[in-house]
Amino acid sequence: MIGVFIGSLLGTMALGMPIAFALLLSGVALMFFLGIFDSQIIAQNLINGADNFPLMAIPFFMLAGEAMNAGGLSQRIVQMAMSMVGHIRGGLGYVAIIASVLFASLSGSAVADTAALGAILIPMMVKSGYDINRSSGLIASGGIIAPIIPPSIGFIIFGVTSGVSITKLFMAGIVPGVMLAVGLCVSWAIVAHKDKVQVQPRNSMKEILISVRKGFWALLLPVIIIGGLRGGIFTPTEAAVVAAVYALFVGLVIYRELKVSELFTILVRAAKMTSVVMFLVAAALVSSWLITVANLPAQVIGLLEPLMGHPLLILLMINLLVILIGTAMDMTPTILILTPVLMPVIQQAGIDPVYFGVLFIINNAIGLLTPPVGTVLNVVCGISKISMEDIMKGIWPFLLVEVVVLILLILFPSLVMVPLGWFT
Asked: To 5 degrees, how large is the angle CA 132–CA 322–CA 277?
């Protein structure tokens, strides 16, 4: 059964079929193998896959990200970071890292955040004398913080698929996200001296305060989201609605950079991105249902039975598996395919599902930086107009430090679980 499922899935993907359709066909193949083929089951599970209230958060966070970029929130975040650290040697790199964290706390989409930040900062960094390969690698590495710091679309999909509390996942992702940012700062400090760059003039305290005042409304959004979730004022889905309405209001009324005539275009872009994710989720539920019916998790548990008393070994094996899969598959389908199989293993081994969820999403986020599929890599290559080979020359120090952070989180679970108590 495992061979039929994996073989049909990888075979259809190798033929160039979109992953959502590949998931459907692998489900059909498994149904034929089990002798239970019924087109009504496929249709019902497709509908049930999309008919899930927590998934409503995805379109609204997508819309919030689009409104943020079009309404001037993104530019003000970059300007604020520039006024604070732009005068330091390698300052634009630190601006990119700080902005990545702030962007991550607004939209939760690695691709959207990377595209917005890269379009603003990569031309500035090249003009100031920074190596384009290294600059592009830093922007890409900072972009994958988005699925880890709340609000995270990756956590939403994992929470819906696994039944784990999305709010707890959001809170548990804060400290690991900050650790990734600190790691990037350290690695950038080591490599930035190689470039002979123009240093930005130091801003006075008055200029810094002015930039903070201009970016105040952008900074208030993550405070509202995290505060509302922490205080139990709203659910993650309701937080997404608040974020979308707030971003639209700030862009239209306060900053006035977002025009009413642009709303239709923003809505269409958000709808297109949402449709891709939602169809993937719906198609994956067909496979998830069949995985359960075929009792594949029990078979996997049986294979790993000798390791059940060693949770660390299981975590290391799973993370190695996800890293390998991440080189060939995007984040969303990886979550949807592996979560139903791995969660019973995790529960049997006595590993906290929230802790595992954080590790799983970080690992999948790193997969966005590994060729040949690496979605974030492709986005940055398109913006900076360099090849995949060139960006890999510049990204390796940052990719290495992100893997080191993942290993630290595996070896020291308290780095995730203890801070979780601070927020919950």
From this structure: 75
Q: Say if CB 49 and CB 284 are below 8 A apart.
A: yes
Short-list 244, 248, 224, CA closest to 72? 248
pLDDT tens for 65-123 read 788 878 877 778 878 887 887 777 778 888 889 888 888 877 777 877 788 788 888 88
Q: Which pLDDT score, from 0 to 100, does residue 297 have?
A: 67
By the 8 A CB rule, do 414 and 370 touch? Answer: no
In the block, tokens 């009413």 appear at 260
The helix/strand/coil state of 39 is helix
Q: Are 405 and 180 in contact (CB under 8 A)?
A: yes
d(CA 19, CA 109): 19
* pTM as predicted: 0.81
Please identify which residue in the block is written with the tokens 């819309």.
Answer: 63
Spell out the residues 6+ positions from residue 155 whose beta carbon is closer than 8 angstroms to its own.
108, 147, 166, 169, 170, 173, 357, 361
Q: Tell me, what's the pLDDT at 195? A: 66
Residues 338 and 420: their CA atoms lie apart, in Å, by: 25
Q: Which two tokens stand for residue 247?
A: 């971003």
Q: Which residue has the tokens 């709203």?
A: 234
Taking the C-alpha atoms of residue 350 and residue 34, their distance in angstroms, rounded to an integer, is: 31
pLDDT band at 264 (very low <50, low <70, confident <90, very high): very high
Q: Give the number of C-alpha atoms closer than 13 A to the C-alpha of residue 408, restricted to the C-beta side.
A: 13
- The burial class, CB within 10 Å (0-12 / 13-18 / 19+), for 1 is middle
Query: What tokens were used for 59?
Result: 């379109």
In 3D, which of 325, 374, 309 has the Cα closest to residue 137? 374
- CA-based angle 146:152:154, to the nearest 5? 100
Q: Is the pLDDT of residue 326 over 70?
A: yes
